Amino acid sequence: LAKTTQPISMDSYEGQEVNITCSHNNIATNDYITWYQQFPSQGPRFIIQGYKTKVTNEVASLFIPADRKSSTLSLPRVSLSDTAVYYCLVAGNTGFQKLVFGTGTRLLVSP
Amino acid sequence: DTGVSQNPRHKITKRGQNVTFRCDPISEHNRLYWYRQTLGQGPEFLTYFQNEAQLEKSRLLSDRFSAERPKGSFSTLEIQRTEQGDSAMYLCASSVMDGLRPTDTQYFGPGTRLTVL
């Protein structure tokens, strides 16, 4: 499974756009990139998933360059409730996937 | 709410006691996973079921740990002779390959927080 590297922490203010970049240099051809959000004392919550280019949903956007060696999670206009840990994972699209979590990025949103 | 549910949410026990946790996956999800998460770390994979069959176990799952999914629906995770090092959040996730998503997207429950005194 590809190893991912993300910043340990990030700070932002309410209303700003936050971009969290993840590097996955050894991503395989059949790997997808998935981001989860986790609040204290809760399980990880699926945010977004993509393979290439750009994916957007009601919560976030995911930008993946052509070489797929990195990805950027973009959170538009963050609020205090977006304070959480964000995990970037890569996993294949065949068989079961044993998700390998790193330590994630701790995002702190301040007023 | 039709998400993954876990019970109990919190468990405090004394060292040496046995504990059992339950996970109810999302209805019709045939895959079920257990993970363990300690403070400041990401979740670590413990074991995986497809229907009632346990197909993969991590080396983290010592012989004091046993998981079952007898009817392919809910699952239990039992820890025998608990140790203080077992204190952690135990997370359950479920998934299904239904063609709506390209990968085995896992949906997590709220977890069970175990404290061993």
Write the layout of secondary structure elements.
The complex is a heterodimer of chains A (111) and B (117).
Chain A: E1 9-13, E2 18-23, E3 31-38, E4 45-50, E5 53-56, E6 61-64, E7 70-75, E8 84-92, E9 105-110
Parallel strand pairs in A: 1-9
Antiparallel strand pairs in A: 2-7, 3-4, 3-8, 5-6, 6-7, 8-9
Chain B: E1 5-7, E2 10-13, E3 19-24, E4 31-37, E5 44-50, E6 53-57, E7 65-68, E8 75-79, E9 88-95, E10 107-108, E11 112-116
Parallel strand pairs in B: 2-11
Antiparallel strand pairs in B: 1-3, 3-8, 4-5, 4-9, 5-6, 7-8, 9-10, 9-11
What is the tally of helical segments of chain A?
0
Strand order of the largest sheet of chain A: 1-9-8-3-4
Low-confidence stretches of chain B: none
Largest interface chains and counts: A-B, 25 and 31 residues
Termini gap of chain B: 33 Å
Describe the protein.
The complex is a heterodimer of chains A (111) and B (117). With 111 residues, chain A is mainly beta. Chain A is 0% helix and 49% strand. Chain A is built from no helices and nine strands. Chain A has a five-stranded mixed sheet, with no helix packed on it. Chain A has a four-stranded antiparallel sheet with strand order 2-7-6-5, with no helix packed on it. Chain A is globular. The termini of chain A are far apart. In chain B, strands 2, 4, 5, 6, 9, 10 and 11 form a seven-stranded mixed sheet that branches. A four-stranded antiparallel sheet of chain B has the order 1-3-8-7, with no helix packed on it. Chain B has 117 residues and is an all-beta fold. The radius of gyration of chain B is 14 Å and the shape is globular.
Keywords:
A: 111 residues, mainly beta, B: mainly beta, seven-stranded mixed beta sheet, 48% strand, globular
A few lines on this structure:
The complex is a heterodimer of chains A (111) and B (117). With 111 residues, chain A is mainly beta. Helices cover 0% and strands 49% of the residues of chain A.
